[in-house]
Amino acid sequence: MTSLNKNNRGFTIVELLIVIVVIGILAALDITTINGIQQKGRDTERQTDIKALHGKLEAYNAQNGRYPTASDIGTTSANNVTFISTNMKGLDKEALRDPKGASGDFSLLNSTPGAGANKYGYVPAPSGCDNNGTDCTSYTLTAALEGKIDNSSTYSNTSLNN
């Protein structure tokens, strides 16, 4: 009498290939989704940083009657940290650094940052103001975004005096 029970245990190569392909597709979808979420998170952090800096600049203007010059708050990390700890108490120096910016670099650009700049821009006006002969009466803060928010690749905040 022949037994109908087979001792074949395991999966066929076709079954294994199908499982591998399905896992590969799911992994690709997850990686794409995670990258998009991380981009949005960094863009949100950029907006929060610009808003925090905007608030402190307005408080500085209320106390001093003018905004800081580009050299006060823009060109070098050493100037930024010293100026902020002295004149903008309560502002974390990390608010000056783009989430993808170099660690320890708190300098700002004295122009609008382009895509991939990984720095924020601070442009006081009128052009060339030095707070000795010409007071800085307004400014524009700008961050380059990775994703598009409201069909724009930058986020800007201007002084209340504009």
Describe this entry's structure for a reader:
- This protein has 162 residues and is α+β, with helices and mostly antiparallel strands.
- Helices cover 41% and strands 15% of the residues.
- The protein is built from 3 helices and 3 strands.
- The protein has helices at 13-64, 70-73, 77-87; strands at residues 120-125, 138-149, 152-158.
- It is rod-shaped, with a radius of gyration of 26 Å.
- It starts with 12 loop residues before the first helix and ends with a strand.
Give the % helix: 40-55%
**How many E-type strands?**
3
Order of strands across the widest beta sheet? Answer: 1-2-3
Beta-strand fraction estimate: 15-25%
Terminal residue distance: 98 Å
**Structural class by sheet pairing and helices:** alpha+beta
Q: Mind describing the biggest β-sheet?
A: 3 strands, antiparallel
Radius of gyration, Cα only, in angstroms? Answer: 26 Å
> What are the secondary-structure elements, in order, as H or E?
HHHEEE
